[in-house]
Amino acid sequence: MKKLLSGLLGVLVVGALIGYGIGWYFQQSQEIGEEVRVVIADQIPPREVQLYFTEPQGAFLIPETHEIPACDEDRDCIQSMLLALIGGSQQNNLPVLPKETKILVVDVENDLVRVNFSRHLVDFHPGGSLTELLSIYSLTNSLNENFPYVRQVQILIEGEVSQTLKGHARIDQPIYADFSFSEAPLIGPLPEAEEISPVDQALSIEKLIENNDSSENDRED
Predict the structure, then answer these.
(1) pLDDT above 60 for 1
(2) Quick one: DSSP state of residue 159?
(3) Residue 221 Cα distances to 210, 215, 218, angstroms
(4) Which residues pair with 52 in a beta bridge?
(5) Euclidean distance between CA atoms 175 and 197, whole angstroms
(6) Under 8 Å CB-to-CB from 181, ≥6 apart: which residues?
(7) pTM for this prediction
């Protein structure tokens, strides 16, 4: 009887040791696997993207290369790209979206991206026809440049479709990229107006009257 009990006790001890060893082995394997995943994640380089900002004179868009964190899903990449756009230029170009703007939802459906912005996009935007257009096409062109399959962008404000961004540029329909906004206008700067002193101005008026009288006399002759 004693031998039987001793044998059972020995089996139990051996079983416990084996169970402990197996548990320890799997725990170590899991920790090693987690360390490997962390190392691999750290080695993934950031992604380069082309973002469009307004050049210093406020007339057209100009591209800049920025880096965003590494990402697997396009939705996450798009959100990071938009955050970089909101963050502003790194080359002293003008911002295109107010820094207070929040991204509520990004939805990708085939070639259409819907971006739901907070009300800050409207409230803190300076407005004006050209400024609104540059904001819209900065967003649209940046998306198309980095994700070529994205052909349309729908801008939502707090989940709602608005007719215009801030009274001028329409955003009630999906918008297509238009890279003509990245070209400098064909007109050059206007010449600076020369200052005219009061004396010169009086002489000019007298000269104008004199010339007018001469013209009338010529017509009478």
Answers:
(1) no
(2) T
(3) 17, 10, 5
(4) 63
(5) 51
(6) 60, 61, 133, 134, 137, 141
(7) 0.66
